[in-house]
């Protein structure tokens, strides 16, 4: 199993992001747009996971007692190196606490957290080519998004395919 832990988006946020994507999307734009049902805020990518690790992760995440987190979407942006168009997510103390505690819990199951600073975002599209100038031009118009409160986080399984990744929810974890 190829797993990751993430926060699902509220319906209002999905609607607003969908409207922003519709304004950006053009036929033949060289981008692979992600489906709204796959949008999430990654807390930790686990990768290939054995059945034993899966059981450990679920038990450790069930043992967490974490508060809900206010989620504030920020401006659209582009990771130049990877050609990803994204919606930024403000790093609030509550969101950072959840991410850190999830990473600490999964470490007990053999997973290593990222070495770089946590940069939460929602991937909207990926570039198929190397020209990033068109990406930057597409996102120059800024959009305001409604914030929401995350009341849960999820354990997702990722399935790779020619049309992009598909995600299935494996477990739900409530935030108190």
The CATH class is identified as Alpha Beta
Indicate the proportion of strand residues: 35-45%
- Could you report the average pLDDT, rounded to the nearest whole number? 91
Record field, number of beta strands = 10
Fold topology:
Layout lengths: L1 E7 L2 H14 L6 E3 L6 E9 L2 H12 L6 E3 L1 E7 L4 E6 L3 H15 L13 E7 L5 H6 L9 E3 L1 E8 L6 E9 L2
Antiparallel strand pairs: 1-3, 1-9, 2-7, 4-8, 5-6, 6-7, 9-10
Describe this structure in words.
The chain has a single domain, classed as Alpha-Beta Complex (Cyclic Phosphodiesterase, Chain: A), CATH 3.90.1140.10. It has helices at residues 11-24, 51-62, 93-107, 133-138; strands at residues 2-8, 31-33, 40-48, 69-71, 73-79, 84-89, 121-127, 148-150, 152-159, 166-174. With 176 residues, the chain is an alpha+beta fold. The strands form three sheets. It has a four-stranded antiparallel β-sheet, covered by helices on one side. Strands 2-7-6-5 form a four-stranded antiparallel β-sheet, with helices on one face.
